[in-house]
Design goal:
The chain folds into three domains: 5-65, SH3 type barrels, CATH 2.30.30; 74-138, Roll (SH3 type barrels), CATH 2.30.30; 146-270, endopeptidase fold (from Nostoc punctiforme). The protein is globular and about 55 Å long. The protein has helices at 146-152, 173-182, 192-195, 258-263; strands spanning 5-8, 12-16, 25-30, 34-41, 44-49, 54-58, 62-65, 74-78, 82-85, 98-101, 105-108, 119-123, 129-133, 137-138, 166-167, 170-171, 201-203, 214-219, 223-232, 235-239, 250-254, 264-270. The termini are far apart. Strands 17-22-18-19-20-21 form a six-stranded antiparallel beta sheet. Strands 6-5-4-1-7 form a five-stranded antiparallel beta sheet, with no helix packed on it. Strands 11-8-14 form a three-stranded antiparallel beta sheet, with no helix packed on it. With 273 residues, it is mainly β.
Length: 273
């Protein structure tokens, strides 16, 4: 019996707490991300993502293949906050084949070499051919330094907060910092409380904060339910739905504002070296 590989086959797949479309969305899987099927119930599949998160998705939102995806030597990652995938190498009045979020990976045919072209041919996870504008892709992604990642985080300002969100269409607080740390090659758990407990996390007192440290907040007595990343000069960036003074989007706030001082619990610094 051959190997089988299962992938999210929609730009963003909602992962539910139960096999019911009205149940809580606990996380998401972006297009082309590999998932494992644990069990089934009618048209629903209980799955596990690469970071160990479990939940239920609709069966039609995944695809199972006999070979891994991407499987070519040329693998590209969406560099833009989102990109339209088109059926032809031109802008057209027709709807896109799919709109992909940041970090989605796509397969480029091995015989394609002209990466200076305006349009790049790709193969979708279902094997169909399509096109993406070259400026929206990064063919050879490199890890950032912490300082580069801190500056990079500001690209996401204004993106909506989404409960359970895990893509550039909408992040929750913990998935946002999890995504940022992937850019430096560090894998963090999905939930904020678990992000405080990894073995390579160091607790940091407030007077020693550095750019890139994660600040954890919640109710008192301490119950962590929120996280943001320190930017320096008393500022931090986070995907937020609780602040009193602004919209529910990724934004920069003042750590010394009474709202955040009241909720602050602890901080962590991550170093794999």
């Amino acid at each position: 019996m051959g190997n089988h590989y299962t992938y999210a086959n929609k730009s963003v797949v909602d992962i539910h707490a139960a096999p019911n479309p009205m149940s809580e969305i606990v996380s998401q899987a972006i297009y082309g991300s590999e998932i494992s099927i644990l069990r089934e119930k009618e048209t629903w599949k209980c799955i596990q993502t690469a970071d160990g998160y479990q939940g239920w998705i609709k069966g039609e939102e995944m695809i199972t293949k006999n070979s891994p995806y991407p499987s070519t030597q040329n693998i590209a990652q969406v560099e833009a906050l989102w990109t339209h995938v088109c059926w032809v190498d031109d802008t057209t009045p027709h709807p896109p084949a799919v709109t992909l979020p940041f970090e989605a990976k796509v397969e480029i045919p091995d015989d394609f070499k002209d990466f200076h072209r305006h349009w790049i041919p790709i193969r979708l996870v279902d094997g169909k051919s399509a096109w993406v504008q070259s400026g929206d892709l990064r063919v050879d992604p490199k890890f950032f330094t912490i300082d580069e990642m801190v500056e990079f985080s500001k690209r996401f300002l204004g993106i909506p907060y989404k409960w359970g969100g895990n893509s550039s269409f909408g992040f929750d607080c913990s998935s946002f910092v999890q995504m940022l740390y992937r850019q430096v090659g560090i894998s963090l758990p999905r939930d904020s409380v678990d992000q405080t407990n990894v073995s390579f996390a160091k607790q940091v007192p407030e007077e020693e904060f550095l750019r890139g440290d994660l600040l954890f907040m919640g109710s008192h007595p301490p119950q962590i339910s929120h996280v943001g990343m320190y930017l320096g000069n008393g500022k931090f960036i986070h995907s937020v739905t609780t602040n009193k003074s602004g919209p529910h989007v990724i934004q920069i706030c003042d750590f010394h504002d009474p709202e955040w001082q009241e909720k602050y619990i602890t901080a962590r610094r991550y170093n794999l070296s």
